[in-house]
Design brief:
CATH architecture of the largest domain: 3-Layer(aba) Sandwich
Keywords: Membrane, Transmembrane, Transmembrane helix
CATH superfamily of the largest domain: Class I glutamine amidotransferase (GATase) domain
Structural class: alpha+beta
Number of strands: 27
Radius of gyration: 30 Å
InterPro entries: ABC_transp_unknown, DUF7088, Motility-assoc_ABC-rel_GldG
Helix content: 25-40%
CATH topology of the largest domain: Rossmann fold
Distance between the termini: 22 Å
Shape: globular
Protein name: Gliding-associated putative ABC transporter substrate-binding component GldG
Strand order of the largest sheet: 8-7-9-10-23-22-19
Pfam family, one: DUF7088
Length: 554
Amino acid sequence: MKRSLLSITKAVVLLLIVNILASFYYGRIDLTEDSRYTLSKAALNSVGEFSAPVIVDILLDGNLPPEFIKLKVETRQLLEEFASENKNIKFNFVNPLEGAPQIDGVITDLQALGLTPTNVTVEQNGKVSQEIIFPWAMVNYNNSTVKVPLLKNKLGATTEERVNNSVQHLEYAFADAFTKLNIKEKKKIAIIKGNGELGDIYMADYLTTIKDYYNIGAITLDSVSTNPEKVLEQLKGFDLALIAKPTEAFTDEEKFILDQYISGGGKSLWLIDQVAMELDSLFNEEGTAMALPRNLNLNDFFFKYGIRLNADLVNDLYFTQIVLATGEGNSSQYNPVPWYYNPMVFSKNDHPINNNLEAIRFQFTGSLDTLANGYKKHILLSSSPLSKTEGVPKPIQLDIINTPPDKDLYNDGNKILGVLVEGAFKSTYENRVKPIKLNTIVDQGPENKMIVLSDGDLIRNQIRNGRPLELGYDKWTNNFFGNKEFLINCLNYLLDDTGLINIRNKKVTIPFLDEEKINNQKTKWQLINIGLPLCLTFIFGFLIHSIRKKKYGV
């Protein structure tokens, strides 16, 4: 008896010592195949410099369906890893609608903050109900707050795919938020003006979003003809030049200034339309307009980088819809119809820029060709296999929606729509007569990057009541597309020095139960779960009784 008490006492003391040590030292072994709970170096660096409390409010609590419970569990475990790296990371789960006297008012307030709700079906005890969930987190540090979307939707995704996409995105989403709050010196982006580029209101949502990462300024190329040195010096003060849908030709002098900026190490993101065509042009009595080639005088400029922009239109059987009105006055009806000149582009998920993205919407886009040279090229986006190109000039008619397409003609797809070029860029004007004189001319530059996209409208947000809507949101069909996230990834990749963008390459797979097997083998597993424990209890009881009877005779 004394020996038993001594053993029990030793075990209790040992457990106390282990628990006391565990309160001071945090340890965890990640045995998952995909290293789900092992944070990357870039993610760890994102929280390393916080010296004051960082409060993370996760709006994911309450009556949740299984898929959101999994998301909640994965979010908690991820934040525990961040908290183990920096004790200033504090988090809690809340249900923003719980106990609210005016639920509609709370929903309106949250939506005004940019927190989009999700309607989900919850089945409990045979009853089905609709729940409104806000799958968001708010990261608060000092006087700053960053919103973190927890749910990653994809068109046509199953429940399993949606959860996988969301969990795979979590580490990047939180590390990105922590990085925003930690930025002390922002890099600079120049918005190039002077050649008929998109107005600020049509880029407002994108520019507002990237202000969390970068400082933004405008550079107008009009004054190149009078003071090229000054314009180049101003441009050199920026880390990246953004050229969004120019509609007027660049002069040789303007191209030379951009060339010297790029040759000197400046990054660049180009969104170029080689064809002049807009959907609004079709809303006339005839319902037709002429698509014409647009001469931007950039062919020789891009040729040096191994890119050719084609004056054509991509027609794709994987399309996004447009909405047309029928009827007049109060009897008008708005119906979505297929529009083959607006390709719906699905990413190949083969690069940090295009990994785990929602479908991207193009509008009257052309195609690109890549040419062999010494630079490395990576195709970021392509049209579907069921697509083709049409040359211009060409009349475009609204009534094509009434004519079924001939699928046999869509046999030359996978047209390049976006390409990343990397290398030590040489000047386009190397061994050529320079259009203007500069004090210093760079013919051979350092390692550099540029991205060229064949649609200027990728960056264009819609307008409602004079106010810009979120980039990627289509007010007519109420669909969301991945344009904004893709373009943010482009900038982050071109300018990111911390490696944070590479977190997007991490692959996570969440195991799910096979619903078909569950239905087919339901009775079998019920018998095993209920009957097996009873049988084992009976067997062990019988054995113990037999041993006691043999040993003690009772």
